[in-house]
Request: fold
Amino acid sequence: MSSQAEPTEDFEGIAARAPNRHAAFQPHRKGAMGRAHDLLHATPALVPMIVLIAAVAVFGLVLGGKFFSPFALTLILQQVQIVGVLAAAQSLIVLTAGIDLSVGATAVFCSVIMGKLVFETGLPAPLAVLAGLIAGTAIGGLNGRLVSRVRLPPFIVTLGMWQIVLAATYLSSGNETIRAQDIEATAPFLQFLGGKLQLGGATLTFGVILMLLLVLVLAYALRSTAWGRHVYAVGDDPEAAALAGVDVHRTLMSVYLLVGFICALAGWVMIGRFGSVSPSATTGVIGNIQSITAVVIGGISLFGGRGSILGAFFGALIVGVFELGLRMAGANPQWTFLLIGALIIGAVAVDQWIRKVSA
Reply:
């Protein structure tokens, strides 16, 4: 009885004839809410941009052509130029999961330094401005060291610095205001950022142009540089960032130094905007709240690591649109606070929803 050998399996041949495909998971189909969440997560500035466009459209329909005039629209930019610069500074701190309650007081203090050095010591105005910028940077550096090295909470550090700087402003100035006429006659360079540029019917001040350039430069730096990626990484998870090779201390110090410098710029913008130097300027007290308001409405997460400078800029513009629109409509100014308060709560609720769905 003859036995026939069983055919052996040709594994190599089978492998060669097999289709060259990789294993893949079936894509999960998301509904409208899922797609909306992904879009908001990828573009945090989208919500404030939509709110800004809607607010402009509503006031335009109610008020007619006078709201859409170049003068009215550029007036909004002039009104928010100080808050816009402070919001850019506040955004950097919030992106690192901190908060700075001293930005407004630092701006006022630096403006007082610029004015006092000119009128009490005879220092040339450009050098006085430079001294103010250095003072603001030093205050930011001190905040940064206390946060990154001593590891004190940013809220506590900047709350204390707010009181210290505010008191130093009153003590050093004797609570005396330097009048706009005196500055214009003696040191017009201090009012340089208040100079105006006419473009058709629109009026732009150099302070507005500085704000726009600052927002664009910071937006590029955060999105397209290694430093920007480090800022987001530190805000999202500092321990993981350190394990990935990020120098957390150096990143935090760079942020706080830059924030101090930007606050000093805001002080110079204040002189250009108001014309005078006043230690009792309201920016020293409410500038902190205004900057935080713009940041929160702008979609920057208070938990750090998510958001954009453009969003904070849109947040500042939203406040400006509400203030001007309601004023032109003759409404009670308290409606502004009511609407802004509702927007703050709504913005935080949206951020929490995005984080909850992401988790």
